[in-house]
Design a protein that fits this description.
about 90 residues, alpha+beta, Alpha-Beta Plaits, 4 strands, globular
Length: about 90
């Protein structure tokens, strides 16, 4: 299992947070322990942390029209700023 953090900008943080349940549902077949992060001081940069047990499946799912529609609804601005993976050892 890979622990992963993805950071990106969004158009509106409240809009993005309102889509959490749909995001968790979309990633549930591929990941667990999905957490959402915002900056307390404000701004439009956010992060998602998740434990991925099917990276290939998740990456393929992010290329579907359904995922693109979800991303658009959440106001995500692509591409992501960064994708971080837990360091081994």
């Amino acid at each position: 299992m890979a622990r992963m953090v993805v950071t990106h900008a969004v158009k509106d943080v409240d809009q993005w947070l309102a889509c959490r349940a749909r995001t968790v549902e979309a990633f549930a077949p591929y990941a667990t322990d999905i957490f959402f992060f915002t900056i307390p001081e404000g701004g439009n940069n956010v992060a998602i942390a998740l434990n991925v047990h099917d990276m290939e499946g998740m990456m393929a799912a992010t290329q579907t029209p359904e995922h693109q529609a979800m991303v658009e609804e959440a106001g995500v601005i692509h591409p992501p700023h960064a994708m971080y993976f837990e360091a081994a050892g």
